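The pair is quoted verbatim underneath.

:::
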Amino acid sequence: MKAASRSWVLAILLIGCMQQKELEEQVSFVDETVPGIEGKKDYLDSPFVTAGNRVYLVGHQNGSFPELGWHIKGEMGGIWNHPIKLMDGFEAQIQVEDDTIRLDKANRFTNYPFANAHRYQLSENYLEVDRLQFVPDDTEGLAVQYRIKNTKDTAQNLVFRFTAHSDLRPTWLGERTQMINGQDAPSYSKEIQGWTFKDANNPWYSCVAAGRAPEQKFSSSLNRKDQTASASLEYAIVLPANGIKTLTFTIAGSYKTKEAALTTLQHIQGKLPALLSQKKERYHQLAQQTKLTIPDKKMQQTFEWLKYNCDWLIRTVPEIGSGITAGIPDYPWWFGVDSEYALQGYMAVGQDDAVYSTIALLDSVSKALNGNGKIIHEMSTNGAVFNSGNINETPQFATLIWRIYQWNGDNAFLERYFPTIEKGLQWLMETNDLDKNGFPEGFGMMEIHGLDSEMIDVAAYSQKAFADAAQMAQILGKEVL
């Protein structure tokens, strides 16, 4: 190749690298077209969630990651990729001359439908820092972006330090499926210019990188008491007068292989603008699916955000299924009765994909576990069923199917689930109505010791279920129950 040709190739490559760097600098998680709600200062010490259907992050609105939850005591916050946890969280600090500033006391928190932002007002150091986080759809990872603004009329040199706190551990009831936690071990990876972590007992991995090489100073540590690990990355940043610099970290994980975690990390890094655009458009469609226009604008806003909240609760574990969960941080798994109530509302606001996938999940797991039409009560994301079903879930399933049919008019939908309803109502009365007076005995909505006799709520749900099943049987041309 001639020298002139080589020069042109080099020039094109350099331009490409510069354009990619400029693109990374310009990536904005949110803009003025995205609705946001600014949190009250009184709530800065309370939780928030950044949710995707595979991965979610829970911390406090002030930017910290305190211990949260009771199902696994103190461990329900952080970053989860069910059926495992990836990290307890992360922290960042900025060194400006002789000052070291920890970014754990945000002055402001803003929630967006698919992202969040923390504002750190560091007036004494002439800095403003925004931390934003975003979780793409169908992806085992997330992006965390720091936008650092110099409010000074002269340039500033600073060192930015990011520390990830790995905690690869199983979800609740992990021991029932032989998920035994091991010591996390960090390893620096030149391939991603960041850290990978592995659990010693399992093929569980997480990784973190910023898409650029850190300075020579980086470090890691082990905590053998709780089998966790931490690792840091440092970056020298020159902030021009009144200028802004951006650092975007990607965190990814896998409960299967290291290669899967690294592939996810590189996918997010390479496709971040497209992933943001796709989720932004999907949430726009969620908002447009149903509309409420009333004089009370606060209530109107509440209705819109309830639709976003519904989407945050969807949890997908491909080996098991996808469905709505009961709540974050302490109930991020699947329930029978909670879904039987909530899915009626999901259908009304047009989120029917979540309706159908959740019903399919509950039906398939109940068939596999019980085989008699009885609907499960609670199942963790590793497939371990905590409660195979109280008495109320089974009749409420019949009413749920009837309610959904009233929206979709789909006879094939009725055909698919009517056999479960037939079996379930037969089980309800033949197995649980011991004195044959038409009132089944057992726990209903109140799971309190001693309240397992002929409960009034079960009686009401049962009567409604038989009435609904009779209408379904008539439509399908079957014998009325």
About this structure: The two ends are 84 Å apart (CA to CA). Residues 1-24 have pLDDT under 50 and may be disordered. Residues 20 and 270 are 10 Å apart (CA to CA). The helical segments are 3-26, 258-289, 297-312, 336-348, 352-369, 393-408, 411-432, 456-476.
